[in-house]
Amino acid sequence: MPSTYILVAGDARIGNLVAAAAGTRITAVVVGTRAVADAVAASAVATVVWLGEPGENALEAFAGPVADVVAAAAPQLVLASTRPSDRVLAGAVAARLGAPVSTMVSEVVVSGDGAQVTRGVYGGIAQEVVAVTGTAVVILDGGASGTGGDAPVEEVAAVPAGVVVVENRPAARTQVDLGRAQRIVSVGRGLKSQDDVAMVEALAAALDAETACSRPLAEGVSWFTKDRYVGITGQHVSPDLYLALGISGQLQHAVGARGAGTIVAVNTDKDCPYFKEADYCIVGDLYDVVPALTRALT
Ligand SMILES: Cc1cc2nc3c(=O)[nH]c(=O)nc-3n(C[C@H](O)[C@H](O)[C@H](O)COP(=O)(O)OP(=O)(O)OC[C@H]3O[C@@H](n4cnc5c(N)ncnc54)[C@H](O)[C@@H]3O)c2cc1C
C-alpha cells in the first residue's frame, strides 16, 4: 500500500489531508504539544510520530529530524496544511528531501511511483495538473479535525538544530486570519467615506462575521489594513457566507472568494460582473441595504 506522511506543527485540524490521502497508509509527524499529537491520533491515521515541542527552537530546526523520519519510508505523498506553521515545516522538510512543493492544491491522486497533483496557478484563475515521480510535498487546506481514531503515538527524541527564536514581539499591525472566518462582510468602492466603515462593521458584528474589502480600500485609501483585502494578490477565503457590498466583482477580486459557500452581492448596477457569479444578487444601494440588514439581525 502506498504511504503518506502528514506534517503537523500547528493544530490538529487535518480532516482534508486525511481525506486526500485515502487509500494510503497515513503516518502523522507532529512537532507540538502532546495534546496535539493525541488529537491527531484520533483522526483516521495509522500511526503518529511525536517529535516533542519546539520550545525556543524555530520549526525549521526540526526539518532534519522530520526529514529523517519521512525519508526512511520514501512515501509518495507528504501533506501539510496551509497554516503558516505547517507550511514553514513542510518547506524546510521538502528542501531536505529535495522534493518539489505544490501549493493551492485541490486534488491529489497517488500513482504507482508518485502522485498526480491538481493545483491553482495565476492566483487561482486556472488549474494545472502535474505528475510527480518520487515524493510530492503538497500543501492544501487542513479542514476540520477527524475523530474516532485511536492511532498509537510513538515518541521519538529529536535533536533540533540551526534556528532558534531569540525574540517574540507583537507585529506592528494586527494580522487577521480571514481564511478561518465562517462569515465575511466585504466592501468595495461603493463605500463613499471612511466614516461609513463603522456601518459595515456593525453589520459584520450582527452577523458574527469578519470584515474584508477589495484592494482599493486597503491599498488606495487605507480604510482597511492590507491583510483584509481579498483577491488574486490578497487573501483567498472560503467562508460559508461572503457578502460583497459595492464590489464590482472584477476577476482579480472574485477569484479570492471563489471558495465561499454562498456569495451575496449588493450593487446598484444590475449589470455588475459580480451578479454573474453570486448566489444571491441584491440590486440596491448599500447605504439602504446594510442598515436594513443590521436592523433585521439585531
Ligand atoms: C495585477 C492586479 C492585481 C489585483 N489584485 C486585486 C486583488 O487581489 N483584490 C482586489 O480586490 N482587486 C485587485 N485588483 C484590482 C481590481 O482589478 C479592481 O480594480 C478592484 O477589485 C475593484 O474594486 P471595487 O470592486 O471595490 O471597485 P469598483 O470596480 O470601482 O466597483 C465599485 C462597485 O460599487 C458599486 N457601487 C457604487 N456605489 C454603490 C452603492 N452605494 N451601493 C452599492 N453598490 C455601489 C458600483 O456599481 C461598482 O460595481 C488587482 C488589479 C491588478 C491590475
Automatic annotation (TrEMBL):
<dbReference type="InterPro" id="IPR014731">
    <property type="entry name" value="ETF_asu_C"/>
</dbReference>
<dbReference type="Pfam" id="PF00766">
    <property type="entry name" value="ETF_alpha"/>
</dbReference>
<dbReference type="InterPro" id="IPR029035">
    <property type="entry name" value="DHS-like_NAD/FAD-binding_dom"/>
</dbReference>
<dbReference type="Pfam" id="PF01012">
    <property type="entry name" value="ETF"/>
</dbReference>
<feature type="domain" description="Electron transfer flavoprotein alpha subunit C-terminal">
    <location>
        <begin position="177"/>
        <end position="257"/>
    </location>
</feature>
<feature type="binding site">
    <location>
        <begin position="214"/>
        <end position="215"/>
    </location>
    <ligand>
        <name>FAD</name>
    </ligand>
</feature>
<keyword id="KW-0813">Transport</keyword>
<feature type="domain" description="Electron transfer flavoprotein alpha/beta-subunit N-terminal">
    <location>
        <begin position="19"/>
        <end position="158"/>
    </location>
</feature>
<dbReference type="GO" id="GO:0033539">
    <property type="term" value="P:fatty acid beta-oxidation using acyl-CoA dehydrogenase"/>
</dbReference>
<feature type="binding site">
    <location>
        <position position="189"/>
    </location>
    <ligand>
        <name>FAD</name>
    </ligand>
</feature>
<comment type="similarity">
    <text>Belongs to the ETF alpha-subunit/FixB family.</text>
</comment>
<comment type="subunit">
    <text>Heterodimer of an alpha and a beta subunit.</text>
</comment>
<keyword id="KW-0274">FAD</keyword>
<feature type="binding site">
    <location>
        <position position="267"/>
    </location>
    <ligand>
        <name>FAD</name>
    </ligand>
</feature>
<protein>
    <submittedName>
        <fullName>Electron transfer flavoprotein alpha subunit apoprotein</fullName>
    </submittedName>
</protein>
<feature type="binding site">
    <location>
        <begin position="246"/>
        <end position="253"/>
    </location>
    <ligand>
        <name>FAD</name>
    </ligand>
</feature>
<comment type="function">
    <text>The electron transfer flavoprotein serves as a specific electron acceptor for other dehydrogenases. It transfers the electrons to the main respiratory chain via ETF-ubiquinone oxidoreductase (ETF dehydrogenase).</text>
</comment>
<dbReference type="GO" id="GO:0050660">
    <property type="term" value="F:flavin adenine dinucleotide binding"/>
</dbReference>
<keyword id="KW-0285">Flavoprotein</keyword>
<dbReference type="InterPro" id="IPR001308">
    <property type="entry name" value="ETF_a/FixB"/>
</dbReference>
<dbReference type="InterPro" id="IPR014730">
    <property type="entry name" value="ETF_a/b_N"/>
</dbReference>
<dbReference type="GO" id="GO:0009055">
    <property type="term" value="F:electron transfer activity"/>
</dbReference>
<dbReference type="InterPro" id="IPR014729">
    <property type="entry name" value="Rossmann-like_a/b/a_fold"/>
</dbReference>
